[in-house]
Structures
1.
Amino acid sequence: MNGIPCCLPMSSTRQRELPAEFRADDVRFSEAFAEHVIGRFSQVGDVVLDPFAGFGTTLLAAEALGRQGYGIEYDESRARYIRGLLARPERLVHGDSRQLDSYPLPAIDLSLTSPPYMRRNDPEDPFSSYTQPGRGYAAYLETIQAIYSQLRSMMRPGAHALIEAANLPGEGGITPLAWDIAAAVGEVLTFEGEMVVIWEPSFGPGYDHSYCLVFRKPE
Ligand SMILES: C[S@@+](CC[C@H](N)C(=O)[O-])C[C@H]1O[C@@H](n2cnc3c(N)ncnc32)[C@H](O)[C@@H]1O
């Protein structure tokens, strides 16, 4: 892994306070993390896409660093919230990344996201923001692979895609989500390795670290 550190100690503190309606479901990574990896893997002026934009951390960090931040977010109220914060609100699409290649996006220099997580036995579909019944864990992994297959065709040669994911403790044992995503997406993009992100302070028991998976479209 050329120049990619194996371990990344990182502040987990989110600087931006969410509106009260969102606080019970704060699924964000920290601004410090987004700024660090965007700075490391892209240049000023580059196009940075978050296909699961959440509360807009990637897009806001991209704008702050002089990149062009684009995103897709399924949840309408989150999409509206992000648009209210962006200098270029039209770059956030309220949509569905399962249809990623149907959106008119420019060529992508970097993608950074944390996808909606799934444990092996979760009944809901994460790609509907947990609003619809799921088709199981294998179907979840097939879907994420299909999304990144579309993304591949939209990335510039040599561009990186970064996925922040954790292995998830739960009642039925640990779901090795990060490793399963690495294997699934590694079928469509070159897997260059992972950075172990050490979150300080910890996000809670079992969540003191996660993985920033590094993929690349071949030149
Ligand atoms: C883990 S959160 C991302 C948080 C983001 N990294 C941040 O710091 O704000 C995942 C997001 O993906 C969204 N999502 C779920 N299914 C989606 C889909 N099919 N297309 C686009 N967004 C989706 C969820 O609504 C959620 O906001």
Note: The pocket of S-adenosylmethionine is lined by residues 27-29, 52, 54-58, 72-75, 78, 96-98, 113-114, 116, 127, 129 (CB under 6 Å).
2.
Amino acid sequence: MNGKISRQTITSKLPEVGTTIFTVMSQMAADSGAINLSQGYPSFDPPQGLLERVSHHLSNGVNQYAPMAGVPLLRTAIAEKTQRLQGRTVDADTEVTVCCGATEGLFSAIQAVVRAGDEAIVFDPAYDSYEPAITLAGGITRHVPLSIDGDDLDFSVDWQRLVDTVNKKTRLIIVNFPHNPTGAILEAADLDRLADIVRNTDCYLLSDEVYEHIVFDDVPHRSLLSNDELWERTMVVSSFGKTFHATGWKIGHCIAPKYLSEEFRKVHQFSTFSVNTPMQHGIADFLLSDPGFYEQLPAFYQEKRDYFCGMLDASRFKLQPAHSTFFQILDYSEISSDIDLELAKRWTRDAGVASIPLSVFCDEPFTGARLRFCFAKDDATLAAAATKLCAL
Ligand SMILES: Cc1ncc(COP(=O)(O)O)c(C=O)c1O
């Protein structure tokens, strides 16, 4: 025995997982000097008032562990906002938990309810963190593709396919509206349809609503929190990173009925315990003093969407302006017949604009010729990218 571990290979618990496409494309953009519209983060800073409140707390002795469930003032601010925007009364003590970004919230929620052998349903294209978390919980991921109807460029839920997929083993359905990457949103009738489907089942719902404040054209965000029947079985995860242009802060929250929050907190307690304290205090102050900030986000991002799409009128791409989020899907079928992953890489290197291919978020081969471009960027960046895209 030389003291070394005898087996230096490991049977991976996540054999399918490699480096995320966001890291791959961002690295490629950096290497080739391309404009990076791939990863979803803003090129601008959080609001000054919020930065001041966080700095204040950093300098005033609020630097030790926060309570496991989150700073009480922040949970109260989240509960007040939820009441005001969704009409849902939630108990700040027992039904709101602050987590390390939506990613940790999603992970903890999945571990809390999915058991070995359970099935969890996701809608493709699906955000890439769901399936690994399901796999680690011992669950099996079932994929239901969003559909594109004929020449209509919008993606929508094929509820019949969901009906066909739900069975006795279904433990969890994960929904993500406003939807990354397609910008699809739900209407009130969709919530009723979902309620019909899960009624009389033992299926929980996990709603990833990180883009809750970025919905356009005066259309409301239909949170699962707004539906009485759905609320009884739903965990809603959100992220301050998207709402406050602060994706690097990794602070989010999970709102769920008490019995689900209790299980959520059991996982949260031992995956991370608590979330950084000065930022929680800063966000609480800012939420309570300036609720107007997130209310202007739709107009702010809609202007960027229209600016970017307006310039692309002169291009050969087909597009339907995004209904939500800060991502624009472009249909390149009149420019190239390449598969999207290859094309995204080639255009990053040769055309100087990085994007995200949709197929990497799909289980079934996705042949839709679509790329996702992030428009949470300053106007000069968007204009430079559009010029390059118009030349294709
Ligand atoms: C749909 C979706 N869910 C979750 C996340 C992760 O959010 P956070 O950065 O708060 O962990 C993202 C980030 O891009 C996202 O787009």
Note: The CA atoms of residues 39 and 316 lie 23 Å apart.
3.
Amino acid sequence: MAFLQKLYSWYDDFGRTLPWRGIDDPYRIWLSEIILQQTRIEQGRDYYLRFVEAFPTVTDLAAASEEQVLRLWQGLGYYSRARNLHAAAQYMATECGGVFPSSYEGILKLKGVGRYTAAAIASFAFRLPHPVIDGNVYRFVSRLYGIATPIATDAAYKEFESLLQKQIDRQRPDRFNAALMDFGSLQCKPQPDCMTCPFADECVALRSGRVDVLPVKSPKAKPKDRWFYYFDLRWREDGAEKTLMEQRDGKDIWRGLYQFPLMETDKELTDKQLQEASARYAQEKFQFSIFNFQFSPPFLHQLTHRTIHARFVRAELASAPAVFPEKDRCFTVEGIKKIPVSRLIDRYLQTL
Ligand code: SF4
């Protein structure tokens, strides 16, 4: 049986039903693809439905504030995706008359859209013959043809793209890509059941005993350690409990999200060092002498390139600090629930 027949026969039996499958609305397909970058389908599905409900069209998304978008994104991580999503929606609303670009090159111009995402949108929404190449597709194709080129390199992308260009179903590239992605994800898994695979008789990796070693991955850089000490200062004012928060800026992680005033150090502090450093920090930043700090247990937060070691320094104040930096803002405890914060801050808030 030919490649396509085998693939489609498997897809008819085992393909996934997803809210963004079988539609040709480029806006919704784009939303789903951006959400699913670095996110599992099970987790991404809820976020997709929430975004579609809150912002039914690209113009609605463009009209929202970045804070609203980040708030809806909260918990998904990789917040640059949300910022790019918002910027791209504004670009489409202002530069493209609210119309989604319909060529591969036009889609590729959108902020946050790389070759993989552009191929997915072009094929699913416009039936353009561009193969999608994600981690699942790399796994399946590298095993099937015994390709040992390290994936996630430009050379590998070009090699796999050229190979799949010869296989792609030019009438239904959308169906071809969906089947390929599902096959890599559900059948040719990291630990696959090769006995039930329709490609078992031609799979090079299976015949040569290399299923466990393909695809070849490039070595990963070790994540960098960072130590964050957040100051959760509380006081009562007008009958409500209040605290200070600042919005992260610069080029660092979590830009645009809110956090408690942060002291970052280049190594872990002992409790005694933390006590002294906290008193100094409060004095310098708020011109406030505080000695009754309480320290949370350590929170470990793993990001792709960073390992964050965080502790929260809590202090009850008699009144608001008389002096605090311009960018700090007072929030009630209820108000914090309405602003975007990182998953790390959210985890801490949940413990209170
Ligand atoms: S035989 Fe096994 S390794 Fe080869 S394509 Fe099928 S599931 Fe993947």
Note: The chain has a mean pLDDT of 93.
